[in-house]
């Protein structure tokens, strides 16, 4: 599912085992996801990619991820300088992968190689952050 329009709301949906070789849901603009389950995808379950020098906000409520490739439930990326992704989590969120939510801020090695110059802000997941060798922020 590719979300490029502003203000899209996706709710009460399960996406399971899509075999196109990519993320199950990709978001490129302001959006809200409520009661969404993504599982068995080839890459991350949900991927938020701000590829502009703007701010986008994605609200997540009652999200479930499980068994997605890259061992990641949700990825958050702001590619350009001046770009920002704000991810707000509320409700009960369940992540069934090794990494529930990751930020690719300025990653230089690992699965998601690139030079991401923007910033990522996450609310609602607490302080469970790991800083791994590949410079990703990971929320378990």
What integer is the average pLDDT?
A: 83
User: Ends: how far apart?
Assistant: 24 Å
Structural class: mainly beta
Q: Which range does the strand content fall in?
A: over 45%
Helix content: under 10%
Shape: globular
Give the strand order, joined by hyphens, for the main sheet: 1-3-5-7-10-13-12
Q: List low-pLDDT spans.
A: 106-113, 129-136
Radius of gyration: 13 Å
**N-to-C order of helices and strands:** EEEEEEEEEEEEE
Quick one: biggest sheet?
7 strands, mixed
Find the count of extended strands (DSSP E, 2+ residues): 13
Count of DSSP-assigned helices? 0
Describe the structure concisely for a colleague:
The protein is an all-beta fold and 140 residues long. The protein is 0% helix and 52% strand.
Structural account:
The protein is mainly beta. The chain has no helices and 13 strands. It has strands at residues 2-3, 8-16, 25-27, 31-39, 46-50, 55-66, 72-78, 84-90, 94-96, 99-103, 119-123, 129-131, 137-139. The strands form two sheets. It has a seven-stranded mixed sheet, with no helix packed on it. Strands 2, 4, 6, 8, 9 and 11 form a six-stranded parallel sheet that branches. The protein is globular.
Give the SSE map.
Blueprint: E1 2-3, E2 8-16, E3 25-27, E4 31-39, E5 46-50, E6 55-66, E7 72-78, E8 84-90, E9 94-96, E10 99-103, E11 119-123, E12 129-131, E13 137-139
Provide keyphrases for this structure.
140 residues, seven-stranded mixed beta sheet, 52% strand, globular
């Amino acid at each position: 599912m590719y979300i490029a329009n502003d203000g899209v709301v996706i709710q009460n949906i399960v996406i399971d085992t899509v075999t196109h070789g990519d993320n199950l849901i990709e978001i490129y603009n302001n959006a809200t996801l409520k009661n969404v389950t993504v599982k068995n995808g080839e890459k991350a379950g949900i991927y938020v990619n701000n590829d502009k020098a703007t701010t986008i906000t994605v609200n997540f409520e009652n999200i479930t991820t499980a068994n997605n490739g890259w061992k990641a439930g949700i990825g958050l990326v702001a590619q350009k300088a001046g770009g920002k992704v704000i991810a707000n989590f509320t409700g009960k969120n369940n992540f069934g992968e090794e990494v529930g939510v990751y930020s690719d801020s300025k990653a230089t090695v690992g699965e998601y190689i690139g030079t991401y110059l923007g910033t990522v802000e996450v609310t609602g997941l607490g302080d469970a952050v790991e800083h791994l060798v590949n410079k990703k922020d990971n929320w378990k």
